[in-house]
Design goal:
alpha+beta, 32% helix, 10 helices, four-stranded antiparallel sheet
């Protein structure tokens, strides 16, 4: 197999459309990119499995088998991307001034590139423990790929390569979705005695929501990610101007810090609804926050590796957005996040710093040598 650079591999990955079809109807999904990743890893000598969590939604697991007796390490990245609306050349992989541009370049095909190259670089060394590449589907929506991999594959530690600007992330927020619905009574707008306004019935909820956010802001918060937050995401109600609205629905999102969970938000929602007749609460998707012990072996190894490749003491920090790291940690696998630098996740202009992709790769190699020796 011809040795490729990080730039070459990343450009190929970015050129493959892998827009998540659950986000954009008709999106290409992961089939083409998964086939490329699987073939590339197989050609490099890794053992490869392809797992389909749903039809047409494959994830790839490649294993650089160790000599035995050592700890195993999972290197994780997702293959799917968000949509490309407004982008001129989303799959062009244009290179300018040390950057590579395109959808997924930053989030997170650069991290996937680093995982693939790192595993291939350590494979001939026959470390005692296995090094596992988990290239997963659907992180941008429901994470069915990561969940399917965790049902089949275990490891002693994991590194998620979401973009971290070569910093070491040991915590991030989670989120919970919910809907509150208020009930009114439909009637002609000229007959107020016959109608009841479901939209004005929602007013106390909105007032209390602002008060809840104020109370969250004033709480001590988590030392790395700060306090939780809550906001009204969507509101819908009524049928036309000349009628009293029979229903009003408010969709909420609660961002949770480590130590908070869906039960906390349920109790907060019940307080928002207090005293409102016939109000209904529906809890939605839950993604728990992530936190790992800063003294965990994978954190210490990644911090040492980060210092080695950057020349400065590793910056330990917490992130605001959710990642598959939370699922891996919850499965009992100590996990840390370390990835390249760039900008434009989910934006019209997205790019990654190419030097940081190579530095990330070297950091993963160094961490693997420490953990899997």
């Amino acid at each position: 197999m011809r040795v490729v650079t990080a730039e070459e591999l990343l450009a190929t990955l970015v050129s493959i459309d892998s827009v998540n079809p659950d986000l954009v109807p008709g999106g290409a999904g992961e089939s083409e990119i998964a086939a490329f990743v699987a073939d590339w890893l197989r050609a490099a000598g890794l053992e490869v499995d392809v797992l389909e969590a749903a039809p047409g939604r494959p994830s790839v697991v490649g294993v650089a088998r160790g000599s035995g007796g050592g700890a195993s390490l999972m290197l994780n990245a997702h293959m799917d991307t968000v949509g490309v609306g407004g982008m001129k050349e989303p799959f062009g992989a244009q290179r300018r001034e040390g950057r590579l541009y395109g959808r997924g370049a930053y989030d997170m095909k650069a991290g996937l590139t680093a995982c693939m190259l790192a595993a291939v670089r350590v494979a001939p060394e026959k470390l005692a423990g296995d090094v596992v590449v988990a290239a997963v589907a659907d992180e941008e929506h429901a994470s069915i790929g990561m969940q399917a991999v965790l049902e089949r594959r275990r490891a002693d530690a994991a590194i998620v390569t979401e973009p971290s600007e070569l910093r070491v992330c040991i915590a991030h927020k989670g989120f919970v979705w919910a809907e509150i619905e208020t009930e009114g009574r439909a009637a002609h707008g000229s007959r107020p005695a016959e109608g009841s306004d479901a939209i004005t019935a929602m007013a106390p909820v909105l007032t209390r929501l602002a008060e809840l956010q104020t109370s969250l802001d004033s709480a001590p918060g988590h030392p790395l990610v700060g306090p939780g937050s809550v906001h009204a995401s969507l509101i819908d109600g009524g049928q036309e101007l000349s009628s009293y609205p029979a229903r009003c629905t408010l969709a909420l999102e609660r961002r949770t810090a480590p130590g908070e969970d869906a039960g906390d938000f349920r109790r907060e929602c019940e307080a928002l609804m207090a005293g409102i007749e016939d109000a209904e609460l529906r809890m939605g998707l839950v993604r728990e926050p992530f936190e790992v012990d800063p003294d965990a072996a994978v954190v210490r190894a990644m911090a040492r590796a980060a210092q080695a490749v950057t020349g400065s003491p590793a910056e330990i920090y917490g992130e605001s957005y959710w990642m598959d790291a939370a699922l891996i940690q919850a499965a009992g696998i100590p996990t840390v996040v370390f990835g390249p630098a760039g900008a434009g996740a989910h934006a019209v202009e997205e790019w990654v710093d190419l030097a940081s992709v190579e530095a990330c790769t070297e950091g993963l190699v160094a961490a693997a040598r420490q953990l899997c020796a």
